[in-house]
Amino acid sequence: MIDFGARWVGTFKLNDARTHIRPIIYFSGPWKSTLRVEFKMEIQNTQPSNKTYSTRRTQLLMDEEHLEGPEIAISDVLNEENGWLSNGKLSVEYGIEVLAEKRVNDGWRFNFEVNAAFDSYMEFPVLNGMLYSHLFLIRYHSSIIDDWYLLGNDQPMLECWENLLKVRVQKKTIENCLQIVHGVNLKISNSINGEFHYTNFEILLEANVIPENDLTIDFGARWVGTFKLNEARTHIRPIIYFSGPWKTIFRVKIAMKIQNTKRTWNFFVWLSRIKYSTRKAQLLHDEEHLEGPEIPISEVLNEENGWLSRGKLTVEYGIEVVAEKRVDDGWSFNFEGNGAFNFYMKFPFQGKHLYSHVFLIRYHSKMINEWYLIRNNHEKVRECMRQTVKGKVRQRSLKNCLQIVNGVNIRISMPKAIEIICSAHRFKFHNVLEYCQREIIQRHLDLRHFDVLADPYTYLALVEHNYQPFKWFVFILEFSMKLSLRHYLVHLLRDYDSLKSMTEHLKLVDLDSATGESMKMIVAMFIYGKEFTRMIN
């Protein structure tokens, strides 16, 4: 009944002399895993006995290794008066708590759902459970929690936990915070991070050989991590460059740090040592490179400084692409990371969220701006956003909306325009609606030229607005009147040969769903005729 993504087996093992037996538990995972577990095993007895056979300890458990229980003499087991057998059956009771886990090509991750890993622990109440962390480590990292303990008052702490539950902080969020507090290097999905090395540093440096490391970054290009000597050959610095199949420009945020094997601090005193790290934003062109911190070679070669680990110099890096520009194309922003914005708004989706500048969003959407002005509560604004997005907006179409909001001129097809218009209408992005209308008119896009059913999402978005394939022209007229697509509506009205044909179509339109401005334009068409369409444009 144990899982953790592996097959677990309970069995028994005889000693070499076949005089004693002990229970064992082992696991075989689909990957090379290491578990730190606390376990207990006890051989059950059916009779009261002064003697017990039990084991309780903490152990590192590698793949194919096993946990050993207490050893018991076979002669004791076979003596029925001792009560170890029940109907000829020897039973073992066990309990296992996984304190931490390390998988291949990944660091350790702690299990904060158990408190056995900590002598002194703090409780974090979360939705549907409780998390635990080392008390003194939490006090060290959080001055406010340390103040609570120094003041000797539990009431602020209780109020804090109650507020956490009120705002419904997700369990995963707290858990990731605790992993970082405990020194785990989490891989954040909105950025790319990793390490590269200069192996056999002293030998290869003398031979004037500088290694290149292919990095696990993509974006359709080859990325390389390597090192560069200064002209005097007294200093060295890590660099990262990329070579793409096209002329591409990236706007990136970069962090690089030369790792040291020696600790820089303990709980009581800070140790003095220079840190070599770089953090900056930069435009990166094809064949250009990102430069890390410069470090003297003499300092690297001094083993007491701790920069080399078995002759290897290691650099930790993190890259977040904020925006990208490809050949013959405009800039496009990365809305899956919030690093581009000092103040951002989150659009929650299953899996990856989207982020954009909050004041730009408020400027383009009167509806969202009113959420802030009326509610004046960030949690209520977030709830309004969740209800607006939930199951009603496609992430791809919202990305395109945000690109337009941020000033990107994207080229769109008719189905893509319809999809963006539906999302823009939901968020009341007026300028996005204007942009899409201009693209449709200037590029002579027509819904008749596309198979709407080829994209089920676009089809469902249209059905929501009463789309019926057999009367597409009436639908597009109703769609424009309902969403107040002013320019496109004029474009459609201009195509009518006579007021009679327009009247026949209007009889099939749900005029109750039309906006007041659209109805005024229809009335003006009856009064002024086609002259009206020339006047308004």
Can you give a write-up of this model?
With 537 residues, the chain is of the alpha+beta class. The chain folds into 4 domains: 7-106, Apoptosis, Tumor Necrosis Factor Receptor Associated Protein 2, Chain A (Sandwich); 121-181, no CATH class; 192-263 and 274-325, Apoptosis, Tumor Necrosis Factor Receptor Associated Protein 2, Chain A, CATH 2.60.210; 376-536, no CATH class. Helices cover 33% and strands 28% of the residues. The protein has 19 helices and 25 strands. α12 packs antiparallel against α13 (430-442), α12 (414-427) packs across α14 (456-463) and α13 runs parallel beside α16. The radius of gyration is 33 Å and the shape is extended. The chain starts with 6 loop residues before the first strand and ends with a helix.
